[in-house]
Amino acid sequence: MSAPVAGRPTADSLLAHTRTSLPRYLDELAQLVAVDSGSYGADGINRVADWVEGRMYRLGFTVERLSGGRLPTGQAAGDVLVARRAGALAHMDGARRILLAGHMDTVFDDGTAAARPFTVEGDHAHGPGVSDDKGGLLAGIHAIDTLDALGWDQYAELVLLATPDEEIGSPVSRPVTEAAAAGADCALALECARENGDLVIARKGVADLRVTVTGRAAHAGIEPERGAHAALAAAHLVVALQALNGRFPDVSVNVGVVRAGSRPNIVPAEAELHVEVRSSSAQGLDDCRRAVEDLARTPSVPGTRAVVEVTDVCPPMEETAPVRRLAETALRVGAALGLRVGAAATGGVGDANIIAGTGTPVLDGLGPVGGGDHGPDEWLDVSSVPGRVALLAALITEFGDPHGGPRL
C-alpha cells in the first residue's frame, strides 16, 4: 500500500491480524451457514439479522432495523439492517462516508442447511450461502474488526447495510439501499470475488417487460376465420424479439415466458410474453426497450394488438471514471498485500447495481474467493479469507482519507 498517512496500518500488520482471526471467522461463518435464510423465509433471515445486529452493537455501531413488510408474493419479508458508526473525522470537511453492503438471503429452501451442513475440506468451505453472500458479509464485519484492533478510525462514518432480498431483485430493500448509498461517498459491495480473485467493476442492468397480445376468440373447428389468433401473433413476436440480440452493443434479449390460450378448440384471444433485456449501459436498456415497442406496434396477425409494459428496471453498474479510480487503488493495494487481483465485468445483477444507480461509485466482488453459487457445490476458498479481509480493511483506510485517497 501507499503510506502517506502516519499511523495507517501497514500491509504486514493487516495480514498478521486477519491470519490470526481466521479461526474466529470460520466459526462465525459456520454459525451463519447453519441458518436457513432463503429469500422467502423471513424467520430464518431475521435469525441472521439478529446475529448481525448483535455483532455490530458489540463493535460500537448503532443499528437501525427496518421491517421488511411484504414481498410482491404477499409473503413476509425479512428485516433490513443499517448499522452506522462515526469515525474520528466525522466533523472534518471532505472526510468520507463509506458504505459496506452485503445480503443475508440465499436461494435455498428451508432444510438445506441441515441436509448440507457447513464443512471445511482442505482449503474449501462448503454449505448453503457460504460464498453468496454470508462469507462476503462476514468479511466486511471482520475488516471493521481488524481496523479496530489496529486503532484506525480516520473516516467520517462507516455504514454496514445487510439486505434480506437481494436474490429476488431487492423488491423490499431497494429504497433503503438507495437512501444509504445516497449518503455515502463510495461503496464496497461484499459479494465474493470471481473464482480467479477479480473484483467486479461493472454489472449489466436489467429491464423486465411484459407484452400482452390481444386478439379475438372463435370456434377453432367451425369458424376459425372469425378469430384473431393472439398466440400466432405472439409466436411471430417471439422470433422478432429474439432477433434483437446483436442489434445493440452489449445488449441481450430473452423471451423467458410465453403463455396463450385456454382450450385447444378455441382460437386464443390473448397471449403474454415476459421479456428480459440486459445491458451494460442505461442507454442500451432504453434503445432496446424502444425497439421492443416498435415491434409491438406492428403485429403480424390482422386483428391483434400488442401492448408493452415495463414491470421492473434494475440500473446497470457502469464502469465510470470514479469507479476506475477506485479499482486502480484496489489493484495497487492488492498488489502490496501480495494478492493477484484483477477487474472484471459481469452480466449478473446485485445490490451494487442499485447503489450505482444513485451515482455513488461502487466496487463489488470484495468478499473472499468463492464459486458454485446457487448450487449444491458452492464453495469458499478459506486460504483467500485473510488476504481479502485485509484488502477490505486497507481500502477503508484509503477511501476514508480526505487527502491521500482517490478522487471520487
TrEMBL record:
Disulfide bond keyword on record: no
Pfam families according to UniProt: M20_dimer, Peptidase_M20
Active site: 105, 166 (proton acceptor)
One function term, GO molecular function aspect: hydrolase activity
Classification via Gene3D superfamilies: 3.30.70.360, Zn peptidases
Cofactor field: Zn(2+)
Keywords: Hydrolase, Metal-binding, Zinc
Domain Peptidase M20 dimerisation: 201-301
UniProt-recorded name of the protein: M20 family metallopeptidase
